[in-house]
Amino acid sequence: MPRFKPVHTGLKLLPVDFDRQLLPGTFEHARSYLIDHELDLSAREARYRNDDQGAAAYAPAVLLKIVLLAYSRGITGSRRIGAACRERVVFMAVSGDSHPHFTTLAVFVSERGDWAAKLFSQVLLICDRPGDVRHRRCQAARQRQQG
Phi/psi class of residue 132: alpha, beta or left (left: φ > 0; alpha: ψ in -120 to 50)? Predict the structure, then answer.
């Protein structure tokens, strides 16, 4: 009787370094960097007044990253986006391993969809600035994503 190496199909705990999941040069990395460093989100953050009481809220930058990543991957339903945050490593890395409920995502998109679209347009305009290192990264990432 032949002997084969065992196949492990059960639970396996693997260490994941979220910082290494968004590789420099990818569109996901460029988008995250631009949202964190180039866009001014302070006006949206100012509307939260839960310093002393109330539950902690998801940062608008985190929700924006999640939604834009999902839309760039063709995922548009809030339930599917919520599932991606629980099941896909790239979404975990972008969200900081937070798992927003699908209703939180749906409210964010319905109330701030126009704002998110304008910010994404800003991201694309920043990526199109010639002579910028990020320009080359964005262009290369965009070509890989289309190809």
Answer: beta
Please list, in sequence order, all residues whose beta carbon lies within 8 angstroms of the beta carbon of residue 26, skipping any fewer than 6 positions away.
Answer: 137, 141, 144
Token pair 């990818």 is found at: 26
pLDDT in tens, 13-29: 878 888 888 888 887 88
Q: What's the CA gap between 66 and 104, in Å, rounded?
A: 12
The residue among 76, 70, 46, 73 whose CA lies nearest residue 59 is 46
CA 10 to chain centre: 29
Question: 3-class DSSP state for residue 56?
Answer: coil
Cα Rg, the chain, nearest whole Å: 18
